[in-house]
Amino acid sequence: MLYTTIQQAAPALRDAMTAARHILVTSHINPDGDAVGSSIGLTRILRAMGCRVTMVLPTELPSLAVVLPDAPEVGVYSQGASLPADVDLVVLVDTGSISRIEPIFSAERAYLAQRPLLVIDHHATNSGEGFLNLVMTEAAATCEILGLLAQAWNQAIDAETATALLMGLVTDTQSFQTSHTSPRTLRVAADLLALGGRLNEVMRSMMYGKPFAHAKALGMAIERMHDEGDIIWTEFTQAMQQGTGADDEAGDEITAYLSRVATAKAYVLFKERRDGTVKISMRSQPGIDVGSVAHSLGGGGHREAAGATLQLGLDEARDLVLSTLRVALA
Ligand code: AMP
Ligand code: MN
Ligand code: MN
Fold first, then answer.
1. Within 6 Å (CB) of ligand 1, which residues are found?
2. CATH of domain 212-329
3. Using CA atoms, how far apart are residues 252 and 128, in angstroms rounded to an integer?
4. What is the assigned CATH class of domain 2-206?
5. How far apart are CA 99 and CA 291, in angstroms?
6. What spacing in Å lies between the alpha carbon of 140 and ligand 1's midpoint?
7. What is the pTM of this model?
8. What pLDDT, in 10s, does the model give residues 146-199?
9. Which residues form the signal peptide (predicted)?
């Protein structure tokens, strides 16, 4: 069943979750603020409803998660570790496809196949793989959906839950700057702030909590920016990562900076990963669809923010992506 409104989904989702004996909450690889905020926020809401919940994320949490006291409780999956055997419901948040929870997806195929999946998400490329899916593509963040869901359930939200949900709203909207920031997004954020959510701490950890190495990496990436008219792109190579000591998260900084330049329609960051693959992050001007370009390259995302992982070297990835993008923009 695929729901697209809170009204229709709320009773079915509550029935499924309260009937479960043990719920596993998880989200996508390289979890961002919305993945972490929605995992912790939903877990806290469900526990307040009397549910037993375990959180496991596929890879390390982003550094901004330090402002959430529950962050240390989130299990980070390690190969060979087993997931709780008595789980009888898997809830996937902020993720367009279950295949995006690598390495869990490959290592735990049988485990996942044996358990019902419930999906709460806002990605345009979500095809509804669960037995119950709430996919609201107009929502700015999965955390926006959860704020509305708690209201529909008449479930009180405490200050820590509000802070977790604010983290997803703030990060996915780049501090309420992106075009999918709606009156409803701001209303949910205002309600969470009124409930004691620590908005300013979340903002500070996102905007002013960067390591020095990120600034150095950003400088190098700006130096390498290429202006091709409709497309502005740059790269973040392994050499740059090792030379500066910057981690993967510096990529978000670079992507955000690229899209500040007004003259282009689309922006691409090519990030060389340690395993030899290339992760692309695409952004676009309002109304320009890079989500379908990412989808055609085996990735996904939203119209104006999307990505993919390519099993190619940096040069080949660049040729393929830029030519695909040029055709799409023409
Ligand atoms: P990013 O560029 O990593 O910030 O991602 C932008 C958006 O695209 C997010 O909503 C991601 O969930 C989505 N996305 C990024 N990489 C992939 C991928 N390899 N497959 C599917 N969706 C992706
Ligand atoms: Mn996300
Ligand atoms: Mn999101």
1. 28, 96, 100, 123, 255, 281, 299-302, 305-309
2. 3.10.310.30
3. 27
4. alpha beta
5. 17
6. 14
7. 0.94
8. 999 999 999 999 999 999 999 999 999 999 998 899 999 999 999 999 999 999
9. none
